[in-house]
What we know:
Blueprint: H1 5-14, H2 22-30, H3 38-52, H4 55-64, H5 74-154
Helix pairs in contact: 1-3, 4-5
Amino acid sequence: MTSNWRTLGESDGASGRPDYFVAEHQAACSRHGIAPDVGAWRAGWQDGIATFCTPENGARLGAEGRSYQNSCPLDLKDGFERPYRAYKRVHDAEQRVGDLRGRIDRMRDEIEDEKKEREKRRELRRLRDDLWKAEGNLRRAENDLLIERFARAAG
């Protein structure tokens, strides 16, 4: 009821909200029996959207990877959208490169873990083979010792 509709429209425009965003205010206000001043809102929105739809802001939003609601009027659209699209493409490509590098790094780690696991399994097989040989040597040595003791006792 106490809203300054021109200020609200200017804020919505400066935030890049499209001109049909006034319908959100109308719906919210109608639930409370309030009629928004659409004319004042639109006048404010025109001022606000002019501060939003600048080439510099397009470049900044694109570089940040932020979304754009196609809200710039035709007379400001090209000046905003060209740098926005160019910077957004770079941002998106950097994100894609980063994502792919991350996936590659994770895959390398998994492969490295698998290699280590294979190496550990080979080492385990070698150790088991060595244990089997060592146990055989122990049995032969124990048999030789028994033979030696028996020979000494007999002799």
